[in-house]
Each structure stands twice: as structure tokens, then as C-alpha cells.
Amino acid sequence: MEVVYEQAETKRKMPIKVAEKKKQETRLIFLVDDQEIFLRILESDLRNIKNCMIMTFTSGEECLKNMYLEPELVVLDYDLSGLEGNLLSGIEVLKRIKKTSKATEVVMLSSHEEIHVAVASMKFGAFDYVIKDEYYVNNVRNKTRNIFRKFTMLKSLRSEKMMRWAISLGLIFAVGITFFVQQSLNSVQ
User: Fold this and answer.
1) Across the 189 residues of the chain, what is the mean pLDDT of every consecutive 10-residue run?
2) Alpha helices in 47-111 (DSSP H)
3) Which of 115, 118, 130 is nearest to 42 (CA)?
4) What's residue 83's pLDDT?
5) Cβ-contact 39, 33 below 8 angstroms
6) Which of 89, 133, 145, 153 has the most CB atoms in a 10 Å sphere around its CB?
7) Would you state the pLDDT for residue 108?
8) β-strand partners of 32
């Protein structure tokens, strides 16, 4: 299998084709923060979660360009900024993610302990909000596990619903065949 790499702003190579190939078996997480240190700390911790692939981005624009990979989770900094000053804010990136990929969950990060930041994040569809304090890595890990449990439960419910539908369809088919055979026997007699 050929692996195609794309340069990220962090100058790290990211295996795009591998992510597409393993989408069904591996959970994809995007980490978005303009502060490299926060990216590295979270990345090193979340890599310990089984069957996860992590991609890091230092801007919302880079994250949005890669949303076609359909991550299950985006951990997004509320205070995205940059030297150009024309970069998208964390809230604007959140809005665009939710507009195009409703199934993707977003956990917002911020160093602000202000309630309006949390309210704005939740208003625009964030799963949760985590303050960058000494416990933020543990909090993000716990939120990640909760999100993955949610997805697992939803998948299980869908499977169960499909199974019930298939059984119902099978019963309808069996009743139909029985009726057809019975009609055929009645017409022979």
C-alpha cells in the first residue's frame, strides 16, 4: 500500500491514505491548537488510547481542509490566533465543523475560566468545554473516552435495530411464502 504524506504547519508528516484506509478500524482524533506545547502534551497522552490515530494542526483552516477524513473527535482551542491575524477563531471553526460534519464531536479548550466562553462553545454544538489548567489532560482524556463510549453504544443500537428489522423482514417473507404455498395447494385441490 502506498502511503501519501502531507506537510502540516507543524512540519510533521501525516499519513493521509493510512487514515482513510483505517477509518473503520481506528478512531481518528484531530487536535487543533496554535500553541505547539499544548498539542504535544495532548498528543502524547491520547496516543495511549487503544486504536486511535491522532492528527495535529496549528490552525483551524488546516483542520477544516482535512475534515473529509471524518474524525470522530476534534479537540479545538477556543483562542486560535496567528501572526496574520486573519485566521479563523475557535468558535468559527466549531461552527464550520458542525455545519459539514454533524457526527463529529468537538471538545473546546480554553485558558479562560469565563462562563460566556463555555456557553458560546455549547451553543454552537461543542460536546464539552475544558479549561486549560493542571488537570486539562485528564479531563480531555475522560471526555474522549466518554465520546468513544457514546459512539460504541450508538453503533450497537444501530446494529440491534438492523437485526430486528432483518428478523421482521424475514418473518414477513416467511408468512408471504407460507401464504403463497397455501394458495398454490388450495388451487391444486
Assistant:
1) 42 50 71 92 89 92 94 92 68 93 91 85 89 90 87 74 64 63 65
2) 60-65, 90-100
3) 130
4) 45
5) yes
6) 89
7) 93
8) 57, 76
List of E strands, the chain: 5-7, 13-15, 27-32, 52-57, 73-77, 105-110, 128-131
Report how far residue 67's alpha carbon sits from residue 96's, in angstroms, rounded to the nearest whole number: 10
Cell of 45: 497522552
Residue whose cell numbers read 491575524 = 85
Kindly give the pairing relationship between strand 5-7 and strand 13-15.
Answer: antiparallel
| Residue among 93, 105, 131 at smallest CA distance from 29 | 105
| CATH domain 5-155 topology | Rossmann fold (3.40.50)
Within 10 angstroms of residue 108's Cβ, the number of other Cβ atoms is 27
Q: What is the DSSP letter of 89?
A: P
Which residue intervals of 49-135 are DSSP H helices? 60-65, 90-100, 115-123
* Residue appearing with cell numbers 444501530: 158
Give the per-residue pLDDT at 84. Answer: 56
- Distances in Å between the Cα of 49 and the Cα atoms of 21, 32, 45, 147 are 19, 18, 8, 13
Domain residue spans of the chain: 5-155
